[in-house]
Amino acid sequence: MYKNEFDNLLRQDKRFNAYMFYGQSNFLIEYYTKIVANQLGTPDEIEKLYFDDFDFKYSRDKLLQSSLFASNNILLIKLDKKLGKKEVLALIEACNTNPDSKVIFACMGDGDFKTMGGYFTSKLNAVSVRMFSPFPNEAVRLIETQAKDLGINYEMSALNHLYFMHRQDLSLCINDLKKLSILEQRITPDIVSKHCFGIGAVNFEDFLHSLLSGEDISDDLEMLLEEGMNDIYLLTQITSFVQQLFMISSYARIHGSANAKEILGFIPPKNVWDKKSRLAINIKPKLFLEIFDFLLKIELELKSSKVSNQNLYLQACLRKFTVFIR
């Protein structure tokens, strides 16, 4: 199941005995895990087992036995490696046996959890939800929701600025919102710049512009990867950036000018939008198809496990990309 389908079920207050969240966005996995856990019970009714703390026998026994001190018996398990079919089905069945119990799996990282997700079926009153990296307009709406929850008086341009400052990392954005919430003033882009600091030595937005302009990105690319940026994440962010450029270019060629609100669903900071629009218009329409084809082939190679050193392979491909795009 995808996020939009699950959102509809949440609005209908549909409950399951077992939940599994996995996919590209760790933020959304954590976000929905928290929503569901709070929907099912109070903090005192939730036990958390993270990574190496997970023990199958203990988990099954806990789910089979009702709590003496609470109405609900909720187990939240965070994993970075998939579980075997027998273990997963045994934990789901324990929840079906004991109506007081619920289990939530938060599957983090790039592990192959798709097979495990197939064990969560409607017949077992279980659901798995695959989370993809949110589009910028969706991400900014999430930031806005958090800002409202924190009672922040804000300008939308400030939230957009925060999002791009943090390389579209929602976790960092939400952490900074908590800091900004203690300021008793309206949050503007200048306030964000004054109190928040983007991560890394390399500006990621500038890196993307340099890459799509055919400039030498060797040093910046090496620094980004040294800072710990995941190979697949980097590639998906590049593809997402190209998709935005394509939408801007197509819209401008049809309507005569680009409208940020209609294209992206939100209005980025003016300097960011102007720079992105110029770059989009400068790329010929036929070249976009070649770019997408090039990037998809790289992603296929990386995900097929045929590449022994993904980091070096990606660096070589992106250097080749800058030559190809000139």
Layout of helices and strands:
Elements: H1 3-11, E1 18-23, H2 26-40, E2 46-50, H3 56-64, E3 73-79, H4 85-97, E4 101-107, H5 114-117, E5 126-131, H6 136-149, H7 156-165, H8 170-180, H9 189-195, H10 204-212, H11 218-226, H12 231-255, H13 260-264, H14 270-282, H15 285-303, H16 310-325
Parallel strand pairs: 1-4, 1-5, 2-3, 3-4
Q: Could you describe the 3D structure shown?
A:
With 326 residues, the chain is α/β, with parallel strands linked by helices. It has 3 domains: 3-131, Rossmann fold (3-Layer(aba) Sandwich), CATH 3.40.50.300; 136-195, Helicase, Ruva Protein, domain 3 (Orthogonal Bundle), CATH 1.10.8; 204-325, Zinc Finger, Delta Prime, domain 3 (Up-down Bundle). The protein is 58% helix and 10% strand. The chain has 16 helices and 5 strands. Helix 4 (85-97) links the parallel strand 3 and strand 4. Helix 12 crosses helix 14 (270-282) and helix 12 (231-255) runs antiparallel to helix 15 (285-303). It is globular. It starts with a helix and ends with a helix.
